[in-house]
């Protein structure tokens, strides 16, 4: 794993923006794995700025998001589809039919997960997967003790994850109890992975991810087994190393 230590969240977003822009320039048909949450917001802003300056194009890119809440309509402001449209897609030239988010509103979520997994493979796999990390080390919505062999699947959300994400909803009761997520195996098949971590609340978990045992108890620790991972983290997030 390559670890890039930066001063703060702004510097993290700058660096991540540079790396993703370089990928967009390098590949003819880049397949991006995208993440939601607050951490990648700065990265998406940097990409929008670069696009507006004419430095990059998304015309030939396609994207696959990590996860989506089950039961969420696409136009619900709390859906990850809505987040992606607002934070990135509508500001750049990516054709919307080249963007993919698991279908949280599918009548058969299990079936939708299988199709999603197949679509990723059919696209030739993900060139670079952007990841944030939950406080408990979850990636996507793969909570602790999810088997490393899991592909895209439906998960029950941890109470701690629902509480952490309740800030976006009117109340904790409104936070969905289930989500669809790429599995650890799906994520690990990406050719390259970029993990972004900011803030001291994640410092203890990040230390385990980098220095601890590879264990299903800390999902992001699996990244130690991937041949091409870059972690961009700020000083606060790396303070427990
Ligand atoms: C959610 C998402 C994850 C994300 C995590 C951390 O649970 N499913 O993909 O990494 O939140 O979010 P944040 O970046 O806001 O700390």
UniProtKB/TrEMBL annotation:
Pathway: Amino-sugar metabolism; N-acetylneuraminate degradation; D-fructose 6-phosphate from N-acetylneuraminate: step 5/5. It catalyses: alpha-D-glucosamine 6-phosphate + H2O = beta-D-fructose 6-phosphate + NH4(+). Keywords: Carbohydrate metabolism, Hydrolase. CDD domains: GlcN6P_deaminase. The keyword Hydrolase applies. Residues 10-226 form the Glucosamine/galactosamine-6-phosphate isomerase domain. InterPro entries: Glc/Gal-6P_isomerase, Glucosamine6P_isomerase, Glucosamine6P_isomerase_CS, NagB/RpiA_transferase-like. The active site is at residues 67, 136, 138, 143. GO terms for molecular function: glucosamine-6-phosphate deaminase activity. Pfam families: Glucosamine_iso. Its EC number is 3.5.99.6. The keyword Protein biosynthesis does not apply. Catalyzes the reversible isomerization-deamination of glucosamine 6-phosphate (GlcN6P) to form fructose 6-phosphate (Fru6P) and ammonium ion. Belongs to the glucosamine/galactosamine-6-phosphate isomerase family. NagB subfamily. This is Glucosamine-6-phosphate deaminase. It comes from Tigheibacillus jepli.
